[in-house]
Amino acid sequence: MTTHVLFLGLVANALAHASLLIMLPALGREIGWSDLQTGALLSLSAFALMLVAPLWGRVCERWGRRPVLLIGLLAAALFPLGFALLVDLWRGGAVSALGLFGAVLALRLVQALMSGGVMPAAQAVLADLTSAERRAGGMGLMGAAFGLGTILGGALAWRIGGRDAVSAFLLVGAVAGVAWLLLAWRLAETAPGRPNARGQDVAPLPWRRLWPHLLVTLLGLSVYSLLQQVTALRLQDLHGLTAGESIARAGLLMMSTMAAMVLVQGLLVRRLQWSPTWLLRGGALLALGALTLTALAPDPRWLALGMALLGAGFGLLLPGNLAGLSLGAGPLAQARVAGINVMVQGLGMTLGPVSGAALHQLDPLAPYWTSVVLMTLVSLVALRVRAPGGVAMAPHAVVGEGAR
Known about the structure:
- The protein is mainly alpha-helical and about 400 residues long.
- The chain has a single domain, classed as Growth Hormone, Chain: A (Up-down Bundle).
- It is about 80% helix and about 0% strand.
- It has helices at about 1-30, 35-65, 65-90, 95-115, 120-130, 135-160, 165-185, 195-200, 205-235, 245-270, 275-295, 300-330, 335-360, 365-385.
- The chain is globular and about 55 Å long.
């Protein structure tokens, strides 16, 4: 039951996050914000989350996973409601575009500070509940929840966001609120009371095993957030769609990307039973090919195919990377290392939107070719990563308990 309600909570969190990322670029133009302002809003909030994630990881070790998850997911439920109210006030003439920007930025920063512990706590819960042999499948569950939430966010943008953004965000807040109530009722604590947690806070970490996976996180999330920022803008500026049409089509594209990711993580990863090392390598190379296709795509149909293949590549890469990171951390530092990983994710989510907006000003295809370069670096790192214990593992090799 803990795994099920955690999955629902993570889906709701991803829905709230994806809805904002997909709808905000075009909505920002409607409000009167520049593309750089919108990118800065998303980047600054990601930077705030990056700063607090390691602190939340330590809180997880000392006070448990459950309170951290409940605080973070409550913030995820309240932000869309507050954002919808502010946009409605702007449309009624009660708030200027600049005043709206300041208010949304403040609200987004508060949400980031409160929700910085969601992913460290969720990753720690799944590590608590899975053996080393099942770790990649467990991390795939977290990725599948993120993907499903993004699919729902894309569907919402496609069906409603282009016509009525306020109603869309109210719906997101309601869904996240229901998910929070279920978590408060049914979520069990998986790591209560650790008397030696204070000593673990200062114990050295095996950085030699961790840094390649952290670098993959940084580059991969930079690519992902960069593309989310510019997809609607590319459709508008390069393919001639209106603001509403670009929101709807971008939502559909991100939905297809995440559908592929969910299918791969939820079904294929468990059936393949590849080691984390080979999941990482296969996913990186597939994502590289997909990004090359998106850069060369002559029309939205080819772009959609490239984005779907990118989702499949990330569906292999992300659980492999998280499992390798978790196994390299050891059993007593799961939340701590997860917090560091979320900090690196935040850095990627900070760099992606603002760099995507800046590159788009140069050329609508510049963000896509930059993504190809970044994924080339990911592929090179993935090919050099060694399995825990120092020996590269065959695709079907299983990580034993000694890897812990």
